[in-house]
Fold this sequence. Notes:
9 helices, mainly alpha
Amino acid sequence: MEKTNDSIKDIIKKAKEGNQIAFSTLLDTFWNDVYGFQLLRTKNENDAEDITIRTFSRAFDKIDTYDDAFEFKTWLIAISKNLHVDLIRKRKRSLLDEMESQGDAVKKVLDETPTVEDRLITEQNLADLLLDIKKLKPHYQEVINLRYFNELSYAAIAKELNEPVNNVKVKLLRAKKLLAEIIKKK
């Protein structure tokens, strides 16, 4: 489905006004471009998909800052590239931290064994999270449960819900944002 430059500008305008259909249309139109770009860079499907989802999330959060003097696709790719660079830096830092802590390997092994208190805290945190998830609308609860508790792939969720994969990704993205807002309000 090829979109003309003028229709893309109209869709972006609607997205800036908060139109959810416009956001979905932009995601459907540019998903393959951003995902393909990241797949070439990362050579890892999971990283490419994760960065692509975060790219659209960031773009949609900052849609008001988009300058239509530039191509929307170029703007998305720039965001995507920056997120990839951030991921690489984060991984390098964690690798360096891990290498520094190798001297404390014995302590680390002892620390990794969860105590009774650790298990109670984990169970309590999970119970709190489940209560927060129940505050979401049922279709958001369902997609979160399928992805994170049943550990289904996007494709498997799409098949289960009889929806396109991109719709599942958007629903999951929105569900995570809403859940984050619920948790922040505590």
